[in-house]
Amino acid sequence: MEFGADPRTLAEVVRLARAATDRPLFVKLSPTLPDIVASARAAADAGADALTLVNTLPGLLVDVERRRPVLGFGSGGVSGAALLPVGVLATWKVTRAVDLPVMGVGGVSSASDALQYLLAGATLVGMGTAAMRDPRLPERLVHELAAWCGRHGVTSLADVVGTLEWPA
Ligand SMILES: Cc1cc2nc3c(=O)[nH]c(=O)nc-3n(C[C@H](O)[C@H](O)[C@H](O)COP(=O)(O)O)c2cc1C
């Protein structure tokens, strides 16, 4: 079973981490968890300060010229654009059910991507793959976010958090 997939094991790990530090404790969850809301609740009850959603998806990429795997140690973690809708949905489901701040991460490479996480309920947004490819991207994204706020009459991004309108 994947590490932390059982909410009771996850709670035990978080309790031990909580006892070991007074620093902010972010618990990062996998998008493959059978019930990500239950796991988020278990982490909250065990003392997490915040959640990070999501980690990579397991995948296999094949170099067809060499007939060998490309990622990690055979199979590996898939990051980037493919993760965006997965992470945004996890953020939406968890922030509606659990009263902890969420950092949305997975597939963000534009202000529009970051806004999807914010609208779904994240209060922080992280960037991995896209920022490794272009280290100046986060800085540009902040300017793009300011431009979006200007166009939409938004004075604080905090006002955007969780304001996704779900179809009736
Ligand atoms: C090269 C690389 C190394 C990573 N190492 C870790 C790690 O050590 N711990 C972790 O929780 N996530 C790790 N991740 C996952 C990222 O933190 C992030 O959750 C994931 O890549 C999705 O975001 P992205 O699409 O913006 O890259 C790693 C991702 C990449 C691409």
Describe this entry's structure for a reader.
The protein is of the alpha/beta class and 168 residues long. It has one domain (7-160): Aldolase class I (TIM Barrel, Alpha-Beta Barrel), CATH 3.20.20.70. The protein is built from six helices and eight strands, in the order H-E-H-E-E-E-E-E-H-E-H-E-H-H. The chain has helices spanning 7-20, 36-45, 84-97, 111-120, 129-133, 137-151, and strands at 26-29, 50-53, 57-59, 62-63, 68-69, 76-78, 102-105, 124-126. A four-stranded parallel sheet has the order 1-2-7-8. It has a two-stranded antiparallel ribbon with strand order 3-6. A two-stranded antiparallel ribbon has the order 4-5. Strand 4 and strand 5 form a beta hairpin. The longest helix has 15 residues, at 137-151. Flavin mononucleotide binds at residues 28, 55-56, 79-80, 83, 105-108, 127-130. The site of flavin mononucleotide has 14 residues, from helix 5.
Strand content: 5-15%
How many separate helices? 6
CATH homologous superfamily, by name? Aldolase class I
Query: What structural class do you assign from the helix and strand content?
Result: alpha/beta
What spatial order of strands do you see in the largest sheet? 1-2-7-8
